[in-house]
Amino acid sequence: MNSEMIPVNTIQAAASGIKEIERVTGRSRYYLVDGKKLPSVTSVLSKVYPKPALYGWYAKRGREAVAEYLGDYISEPITYGLLENAVAEAKLKPAQEAKEAADLGSLAHELISEELQGNVLPVPVVLESVMNSFHWWQKLEKLTLVDTEVAIFGEGYAGTIDALYTRPDGSYLLVDFKTSKAIYDDHHLQAWAYMDAIFTSTNDHINPDLIMDAQIIRLGKEVPEWEVVDVDGHREKPIWDAALAFYHALKGA
Predict the structure, then answer these.
(1) 152 beta partners
(2) Helices marked H in 40-79 — which ranges?
(3) Are 205 and 19 spatial neighbours (Cβ–Cβ below 8 Å)?
(4) Where are the domains of the chain?
(5) Quick check: pTM over 0.90?
(6) DSSP character at residue 126
(7) Neighbour order of strands in the sheet with 29-33
(8) Predicted confidence band at 147 (pLDDT cuts at 50, 70, 90)?
(9) DSSP 179
(10) Band of residue 203 on the pLDDT scale cut at 50, 70, 90
């Protein structure tokens, strides 16, 4: 289990006086805010929100793993032992690939955050397209960085955001970078939860005219490309509220 202190985003820190909170990562991730244990947004969504695309991918890679394993034994007798080994490979390989993809995604976020802070780190070959995508997106945007890799906390949850910017008109833009092949429904919920935590906890305290939007930026892994999607709060709010309530109901049961 790993514990570390994470700075709170500039807006909430000014409103609450809380400058940093503790982030604890083990089998799941949670934050400690004023003595309260708050689950991370990703922990909430992984517990209660269905991911049909991921389930389909696991099934597809499992079938492919069986075929790849048995391919080395074509024309040989099929034994129960061979089938058991093929099934074991089908269980193991997709999980390994998912972990590798998650690790690469985490490294990409680290590289982007360090670069935003002025620290340029060596880029592995497998992430060159991701970083080129980020650079090209950044050049086209007229944004001023406020925060990167800082904590947010809301009613019943917390999390860490990728970046918070201001636009030329003074409004805020919360950005969530993704390296997945597509943008999925839970990505929208994640970004909305981050933005809503900041907005609702500070709106009545320091800036009643606070304007904030959220965007998901998908950065291509195979070729340099990017996709920008705006987060629609009218759609995401009731779904997130229900997911969070369901999560806490399960934990309290």
Answers:
(1) 159
(2) 41-48, 52-71
(3) no
(4) 2-42+125-252
(5) no
(6) G
(7) 2-7, 20-25, 29-33, 36-39
(8) very high
(9) -
(10) low
The token duo for 10 is 């500039």
Q: Please check whether residue 159 is in contact with residue 12, taking contact to mean a CB–CB distance below 8 angstroms.
A: no
- Decide: 193 and 233 in contact? Cβ < 8 Å: no
Cβ-in-10-Å burial (0-12, 13-18, 19+) of 140 comes to exposed
Whose CA is closest to 11, among 217, 197, 187? 197
Task: Give me the helix-helix angle, 185-202 and 41-48, nearest 10°.
Answer: 140
The pLDDT tens digits for 178-194 are: 998 889 999 999 999 99
CB 69 within 8 A of CB 81: no
Q: Which residues contact 186 (CB under 8 A, 6 or more apart)?
A: 45, 49, 51
For every residue of 80-121, DSSP letters joined together read HHHHHHHHHHHHHHHHHHHHHHHHHHHHHHHHHHHHHTT---
CATH 3.40.50.1100 for domain 2-42+125-252, yes or no, is no
